[in-house]
């Protein structure tokens, strides 16, 4: 087990370059097995999830190499086999193999995945989509068995709730289905556009990604002819923007797509952070006299649930009480008691509402990262605090943030990884 050791109180300045999107990467890697040729990605984030996905690929005789942000995957000799339960259970996004295996072989057997514990995230919408395409699905002993003996046939599918995971899984299953599948009430996240772009460049026919109606016309073959560059990680970008506003004396956040961050940057501007938004970067000056805000998480293009925890340390600097209404995962509150140990005035009620009141004089403490974004909020607060903060269960943070130690060190932070 690893921990992060932070000597807080140092002001941050300089530049930070955002890596490829984690939430794209964890879907694109499973999608690569739909190809009949080797596949190459660049701007791949160096995070633990990538290595776990490589282990799953290896179990299917799919070779891969990962170096310098470039990931090569060769699925040409793929075989059906039992996927390694250890890697599956450590990574919720492994459920994307349900859609890609179904699309490739017409069947899939996947142990129910693990990952962050942020409350219920059922896969009923995924199953609804697979069944609509003609597959039978049953669950037994935490394992999902999916089979389309008569082949996959196009269908009209309406998602009961907007789900990024279900949208991506249904797209992957439908790329080889006979006919044109119409997916309504689809999620609109940029990562879905990234997946569709990758598949379309290999010969898929996917239209409407980024809207709530996506049409997928099945094709027989998918062949990679060029390198796919993964979009920048909007959640990593938002995390550094909030940290720069809270503890920075001038920070330039590079390799961002500002349009992907508009709901987030709008809230920073509302607080009084004087952002300089450029074509592919955002400059954050030293921020003073901040105002409290009300945040309500929502599916894209709304305020991302993955940014409600990273923005919390910044809210402590606003004069008054800020309110966060968590509508996506109301149980996403495991950071609250840990932040309280550091001196943050924060509380929540049973309706997913979190209140953050202006507070200062944070002090170092030993805290635990329950999941990726909770860990990010603890790291940011530790950087703001006096004394030494130890963040245990650091693997959660490393799962989601590319080269975080190097990037923070280059911004003048004092942070190291140590063995627990």
Automatic annotation (TrEMBL):
Native organism: Weissella jogaejeotgali
Protein's pathway: Cell wall biogenesis; peptidoglycan biosynthesis
Gene designation: murA
A Pfam family per the record: EPSP_synthase
Molecular function (Gene Ontology), one example: UDP-N-acetylglucosamine 1-carboxyvinyltransferase activity
Family affiliation: Belongs to the EPSP synthase family. MurA subfamily.
Keywords, sorted A to Z: Cell cycle, Cell division, Cell shape, Cell wall biogenesis/degradation, Cytoplasm, Peptidoglycan synthesis, Transferase
Alphabetized Gene3D superfamilies for the sequence: Enolpyruvate transferase domain
Binding site for UDP-N-acetyl-alpha-D-glucosamine: 92, 121-125, 306, 328
Domain of life, source organism: Bacteria
Protein name as catalogued: UDP-N-acetylglucosamine 1-carboxyvinyltransferase
GO cellular component terms given for this protein: cytoplasm
Catalytic activity annotation: phosphoenolpyruvate + UDP-N-acetyl-alpha-D-glucosamine = UDP-N-acetyl-3-O-(1-carboxyvinyl)-alpha-D-glucosamine + phosphate
